[in-house]
Amino acid sequence: MLDETLIDQLNRGYVCPPDATPEWKAACDYGFDMSLVASNLELTPEQRLERHQNALNMVLDVKAARIAHECSSSE
Fold it and tell me: What is the DSSP string of 37-55?
């Protein structure tokens, strides 16, 4: 359930932490969504690999479905 605090945070967007490195601040200033980087850094390497593999599997499934659709459409 969304409470008012979470809604305010989502509306405000990512806030660069005051102790961020100059490189992190530069990326924030440039417009990169550093919340994605931060959330991924909270995962273990194994969890990041699992997410990557899941995304890759989805892309391969979509590609296979597109190829199957193109083959069935040309018949």
Answer: HHHHHTS-HHHHHHHHHHH
**Which tokens is 11 given?**
């509306």
* 24: confidence class by pLDDT, cuts 50, 70, 90: very high
* Pairwise CA distance, residues 19 & 28, whole Å: 13
Extents of the domains making up the chain: 16-73
27 exposure class (CB count in 10 Å sphere: 0-12, 13-18, 19+): middle
* CA dihedral sign of residues 25, 31, 36, 37: negative
- With tokens 């005051």, the residue in question is 18
Rounded CA separation 24/34 (Å): 8
Q: What's the count of helices (H) and strands (E) in the chain, helices before strands?
A: 4, 0
Averaged pLDDT, 18-38: 91
